[in-house]
């Protein structure tokens, strides 16, 4: 009975000054909708950045890190201060690429986290077309597995990626590289290796990843013809690229398999720490801005509740004189705050989703993007509603506690 009476009194307070109630609801609505929008937008930006990064970057890379720094060999074999005369110093030939790649590939395929793996033969070359020449990277690839790791077929601008498997004389060029060399499909491009070997290939297609440094310097050739160009055997590879189910676990998996073979095993986050740092900073900014908006909305509710209590102070005193306990007064004003929180929260979730969908359809034509990125995660909506209710509860509890401590005798006497 008392609970029903408290609710009726709270309903009267809510409806007696609709403008004040509406302002409080709008504060919560705005805070929650901005929380949803900011987090959806930042998550969308991070997802796009991740997709772009992994168009040319695997989760884990295995490669030969080259010889150690031997610029001061004397200090390693002689005491400090020893004077040595060395003539015609030369770098001793070291092993290039990865030996026994078949065994390493077989071992990696047994790892439970693995989802895709591909060997590569990468070499720096000169691409030439008449007087135009560009220093770039020729990547010899296993056509099917390369597509499983990098989804390169989705970045094709011209030509069919699978055709590379059957064309030993065919090459795919980045759009920027083709433009610099003034080449189009069916033209010929000359490739010059560091060993002075020159060979001409036919352009059978172009690709565009959206990463300018890749599109302006990279070309793909089937791995067999690449080995022939470099006069290497069928086991020769320079890199093994690995994708796992959860790329956030790449560092842990890389550290676990690294001791098995004598080559550098590096996760994407270790070689590109700026990507992870940028992603985390954007998340922090989004949460900070959103929480600030919610706190501002909370202060608005706090002020409105305080004003309501000051205006209703004589009525509160009369209620207490009639036998209402402090607990009842607290319940009335907390009910008031929570109704504002729930109504504002529900409307805020709908408004946040509407704003996100609208912004998602704004044209934004840069690289491979056609619209502003947006992600729709149920967690963002759940957290927004929970934070909104928590903020309104705190904003309502403090004035409610103040109202429950009012001495009716002092108020009625004036």
UniProtKB/TrEMBL annotation:
Q: Which residues form the ABC3 transporter permease C-terminal domain?
A: 288-408
Q: Which UniProt keywords apply?
A: Cell membrane, Lipoprotein, Membrane, Transmembrane, Transmembrane helix
Name listed for the protein in its UniProt record? Lipoprotein-releasing system permease protein
Q: One GO CC term of this entry?
A: plasma membrane protein complex
Query: Where does the sequence pass through the membrane?
Result: 21-38, 284-305, 332-355, 381-400
The alphabetized list of GO BP terms reads: lipoprotein localization to outer membrane
- Give yes or no: UniProt keyword Lipoprotein: yes
Topological relation to the membrane, as annotated: Multi-pass membrane protein
Species annotation: Dinghuibacter silviterrae
Q: Which family does it belong to?
A: Belongs to the ABC-4 integral membrane protein family. LolC/E subfamily.
Q: Which residues form the MacB-like periplasmic core domain?
A: 21-258
Q: Where in the cell is it found?
A: Cell membrane
A Pfam family cross-referenced in the UniProt record is: FtsX
Broad class of where this protein is predominantly found: membrane
Taxonomic path: Bacteria, Pseudomonadati, Bacteroidota, Chitinophagia, Chitinophagales
Tell me the domain of life: Bacteria
